[in-house]
Each structure stands twice: as C-alpha cells, then as structure tokens.
C-alpha cells in the first residue's frame, strides 16, 4: 500500500521528523511504500473561500500553486500521515494552509474524494498534552469525520525538549503506533 507522510514542522530534523522517521521505518518494514513530503518545500497559499470548488468550476481548487499537486497526491495515496509540532495551540501555518485547502476534496453533495481513506496524526509538543496538543487531535478528528475518512489513530509526544530528549521509550511508543497504523492499511 501507498502511504504519504506530510512533515508539517518547519524543522526538517526536529522532534517531529525524528518520531516520523520511526513510524515510516515500521511502515516500510511492513511492506508499504512511504513517500515523505516536507511541507516547507512547497508554496501553498491558504484557502480563499471562493467556493469555486463547491460550484464545480475547477477540478480541485482555484489557487494554482503547489497545493494542487499535493492535493492530487493525497487523493491518490492509500493512506495519509500528518506529522506536526504544536504551534500556538494549532498546526504550523504552512500545514494549516494545506489542511484548509483540503476543503475542496469534499463536494457540495457531501461526498469526498478521500472517503474511507485512513489518516493518522503524529503531534509533538514542547508543553503538556492537555489544553495544548489535544487541540490538534480534536481538529484532526473533526476534519477526518467531515471528509468521511477513517481515523487511523493519533500519537501525541508531549514535553519534548529537543530531538535528543526523545528516548527509547518514545521510540517504542512510535513503533507501536506505527504497527497499529500499518494494520489499518
């Protein structure tokens, strides 16, 4: 099966990337192809709420930037894994722009181009989970439900003090999460 992972952190080698590496390794070991996309490599504008996507006037979105190719790749994949640090109680801006643009994947008749597709979430946070990282999990669950996708699980690693603080216990949690996610594929 084909999994696309989206690294939403602006740091290519930070906490989130390290946890995502462990998850991707398990997915590959389970026989799945994994393609990582680092969101900071792409120019993706936020949704302008023009609603042209809902009126059938465009294939996906009326904003012709890197978001179009990213949305096509998400639709084509068998699974999507979102990985992001907490930024001001939410997703980092570049990833949030793409998530907002995913609105075009559900049309006006309530069908979705990613209906039934498993989506997993990895969140890292410098602070606690409560009233912090849990807010991203809630947003992910709401988006997944709206899109008719399948919630494949969420892994929250709170109180990260830097990649070197992610010890063997965190690695084992990431691997166990990845095994659960691999079972959904």
Describe this structure in words.
With 185 residues, the chain is α/β, with parallel strands linked by helices. The protein has a single domain, classed as Rossmann fold, CATH 3.40.50.360. Helix content is 38%, strand content 18%. Strand 4, helix 4 and strand 5 form a beta-alpha-beta unit. Helix 1 packs across helix 5. The mean pLDDT is 93.
Structural class: alpha/beta
The CATH topology annotation reads as Rossmann fold
Low-pLDDT residue spans: none
Largest sheet: 5 strands, parallel
Task: Choose one word for the global shape.
Answer: globular
- The CATH class designation is Alpha Beta
Q: Tally the helices.
A: 5
Distance between the termini: 7 Å
What integer is the average pLDDT? Answer: 93
N to C succession of SSEs: EHEHEHEHEH
Report strand %.
15-25%
Architecture per CATH nomenclature, i.e. the level-2 architecture: 3-Layer(aba) Sandwich
| Quaternary organisation | single chain
Radius of gyration: 16 Å
Concise structural overview:
This protein has 185 residues and is of the alpha/beta class. It is 38% helix and 18% strand.
Question: Helix and strand layout, with pairings?
Answer:
Layout (H helix, E strand, L loop, with lengths): L1 E6 L7 H15 L3 E6 L27 H11 L2 E7 L7 H9 L16 E7 L4 H19 L2 E8 L10 H17 L1
Parallel strand pairs: 1-2, 1-3, 3-4, 4-5
Helix pairs in contact: 1-5
Notable characteristics:
alpha/beta, 185 residues, Rossmann fold, 5 helices
């Amino acid at each position: 099966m084909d999994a696309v992972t989206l690294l939403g952190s602006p740091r290519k080698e930070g906490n989130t990337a390290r946890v995502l590496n462990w998850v991707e390794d398990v997915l590959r070991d389970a026989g799945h192809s994994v393609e990582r996309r680092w969101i900071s490599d792409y120019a993706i504008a936020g949704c302008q709420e023009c609603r042209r996507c809902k009126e059938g006037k465009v294939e996906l979105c009326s904003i012709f930037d890197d978001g179009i190719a990213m949305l096509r790749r998400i639709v084509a994949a068998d699974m999507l894994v979102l990985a992001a640090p907490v930024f001001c109680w939410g997703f980092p801006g570049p990833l949030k722009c793409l998530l907002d643009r995913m609105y075009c994947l559900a049309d006006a008749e309530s069908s979705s181009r990613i209906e039934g597709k498993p989506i997993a979430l990895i969140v890292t946070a410098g602070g606690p989970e409560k009233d912090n990282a849990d807010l991203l999990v809630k947003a992910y669950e709401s988006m997944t439900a709206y899109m008719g996708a399948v919630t494949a699980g969420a892994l929250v690693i709170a109180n990260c003090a830097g990649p070197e603080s992610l010890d063997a216990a965190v690695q084992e949690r990431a691997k166990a999460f990845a095994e659960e996610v691999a079972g959904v594929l």
